[in-house]
Structures are given as C-alpha cells and as structure tokens.
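Exercise 7.
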Amino acid sequence: MSKDLTTIPRYEMIEIIVPAGTVGQVPFPDVPNLRNQQDQEIVILDIEFFPVYAYGASYLNNTIPGTPFAELPKAAMILYVNGEESIRRIPLSKINYSQNAGVGATFEQERVPFAQLRKIDFPKSYVQFNAALVGLPYVMPFGITYLKYKQ
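Solution. The predicted structure, written as tokens, is:
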C-alpha cells in the first residue's frame, strides 16, 4: 500500500459503557474512523485510558460517571491485531497517562506508548474484568492516537 506523505496524526475518543455487576469481557465499539479498509490503512500510535479524575462522565450520556480509580486493577485490555489476540491483558494502569491527582495510586508508573500497531480490529478487541464491578455503571474512556494512510 502506498503512503500519503501528507498524513497527519489523528485522535479518536472511544467510550465503553460498563453495566453494573459486569464480570468477564466488554467489547470495544466499532469505530468507523479506526477501520482498516481497502483504500486506507490505520496505524495506531498510542492508546491511553482516563480514570474518573481525568474524565468525570460520559460525553455520550453524561449521567454515567467515569471509571472509579479502585476499578483499574480489575481490568485489562486485549487487542485483536492482524487476525489474532496478540496484545493480551495489558492492565489499564499501564495505559493511564494522567497523574493520580492526589488519589494516592500505589501502582502509578511511567507510560510507554505503542509503536505503530497495524490492523487492530476494535470490535473483536475487549476489556477483560477479573472481578465484578462494584456500584453503578460507569464509562471507560480510551484515547486513540493514530495515522490514516490513504491508498
């Protein structure tokens, strides 16, 4: 596939609404801007996660609060890349760019961005929970930085 040299980085916010009592898998939504198609290739440069202190409520439905800080250790991201689950069980705390804003995160660490992930199938990718959600439903916001190459 030939690359368009005028391509600029793009950004897309994805929200996953997590129902109360969720355990197991919650899929990412299908986002048309992030689909690889015959006339375009999407290259993911980074994926970041925002807990409640950085993203207070859903932009799609502002009655749903952001992800409580205590829920981060329960969830990991699995990405379906190039036809298989090749990026598995990344703790959400690892893709959290935001500082803890005084919350007292004991697992806070320096972020390491992804390096040009190709052919991610977001509808087949998901967040895996190792314990049931406590409390009300919440939103899990993911920021995706990417390049879009036109053929």
